[in-house]
Amino acid sequence: MSGPRPGRTHDITAARHDHIVEHLKAAGLGALADLGFLGLDKDCNNQVVVTGYKATRARKLTTGQKTANRIIAAGRAPVEHGFAHLKTWRILTKLRTSPARATNLLRALIVLTNLELDR
pTM score, two decimals? Predict the structure, then answer.
């Protein structure tokens, strides 16, 4: 989890600023990402950030691309459910503190959520 950013910061801008691709490569990890991260990882030979395919008016998706999008969505679903679960913590709706403290609080809530889900 990264530090706080203004709400208007786009996902891909925050990922570039935090050097997400370099950190993933250094750790030998990969990530499934939504279409907001298209173009983040431009290294076709050693790609660590996998995104789906985007249709346009001029170019419809093939059956294979649609299948790939469904597989990526299925892999991302638990993460999206985790974010939704974090939003049930009512303390976050009334939070009035510095962004640094908010980040630490959110990290603690993630740990508590994982403990709760493991039971």
Answer: 0.70
